[in-house]
Amino acid sequence: MSVMFELQQVDYRYPDGRSGLQACSMSLRRAGRHAILGPNGSGKTTLLQHLNGLLRPAAGAVHVDGALMDYRRRGLQVVRQQVGMVFQNPDRQLFSAHVYEDVSFGPLNLGLDEATVRQRVAQALEAVDMTAHADRPVHELSFGQKKRVCIAGVLAMQPRALLLDEPMAGLDMPMQTELAALLDRLHAQDVTVVLSSHDMDFAYRWADDIHLMAAGRCVGSFAATALPQNTDALAAAAQPLPTAVRLHTALVGRGLLPAHPLLRSVEDVLAALPPSTPLTVASPIAGKLAP
């Protein structure tokens, strides 16, 4: 397994003395879809900010693509060309007056020629369905549109890894679906995608690997397909079993479905029911199990 990011016994304290990470160790494989889950204050955002050098550990080590993180100016420039980050609040990331200017900022700072910059910006805006808004003032955009522009600005850098802090927060369901599809397209291009989330159902459905945080530590890392066997780690991170797992288990218990294959979404569970199964049997179970 080729590793993109590795944290080894990382400690971090904020300037006010609060602990952000405590002896945190985690390995994230290259070209994977990684979901980091945990309660508020567990260290998810702090961890992400260590992966592209926004924060520097007080102890321990961070490796990116097999190399120890270099915190000198040139070293950080190299890392941030490879590792892009999208913040939860887009207003923290947008600083240009117009959409095109904001998305072009990164490529221009790479010293690329004008034609290449134009091409990258056009591709990035198309990827997030914001081409028609290229000339709009940023302040006129909705929250979801601002988040798309932030993602476009990172994509224009053509990173090898993309970090997203709570990317689904504040998005309606259609935009969440579109964003998930975009992340899948990036994954298909061998981009390593790492996101933090409070949505266990989405994480279980989407991710290749699940990483659980609690009190600044990683308390569990495993393939998403192994999640049902990691209930102790889920409890340590105060995370529920996904609705799909609970629904599947309930239907297996009633003899309506076999235990295998593993089904990772409620839609897949319901679709697997025999055609003769009355919805009056399955739907109430799903309704009771929904978070």
TrEMBL record:
PROSITE patterns: ABC_TRANSPORTER_1 (PS00211), ABC_TRANSPORTER_2 (PS50893). Keywords: ATP-binding, Cell membrane, Membrane, Nucleotide-binding, Translocase, Transport. Gene3D superfamilies: P-loop containing nucleotide triphosphate hydrolases. GO terms for biological process: cobalt ion transport. The keyword Ribosomal protein does not apply. Its main location: membrane. This is ABC transporter ATP-binding protein. InterPro entries: AAA+_ATPase, ABC_transporter-like_ATP-bd, ABC_transporter-like_CS, ABC_transpr_CbiO/EcfA_su, Co_trans_ATP-bd, ECF_ABC_transporter_ATP-bd, P-loop_NTPase. Belongs to the ABC transporter superfamily. It is a peripheral membrane protein. GO terms for molecular function: ATP binding; ATP hydrolysis activity; ATPase-coupled transmembrane transporter activity. Transmembrane segments: none annotated. Part of an ABC transporter complex. Responsible for energy coupling to the transport system. GO terms for cellular component: ATP-binding cassette (ABC) transporter complex. It is found in: Cell membrane. Residues 5-240 form the ABC transporter domain.
